[in-house]
Amino acid sequence: MTKLLLSIHVLAAILTVGPVAVTASLFPRYASRAPVDPEPSGPGTGSAREPSGRGPEFAEFLHGICRRYSLAGVAVPVFGFATGAQLGVLTDAWLIASVVLTSIAAVVLIVTVLPDQERALAALGDGTASPGQPPATAPPSKARLAMTTGVFNLLWTVVVVLMIVRPGSTTGA
Question: How far is CA 18 from its chain centroid?
Answer without folding.
Answer: 8
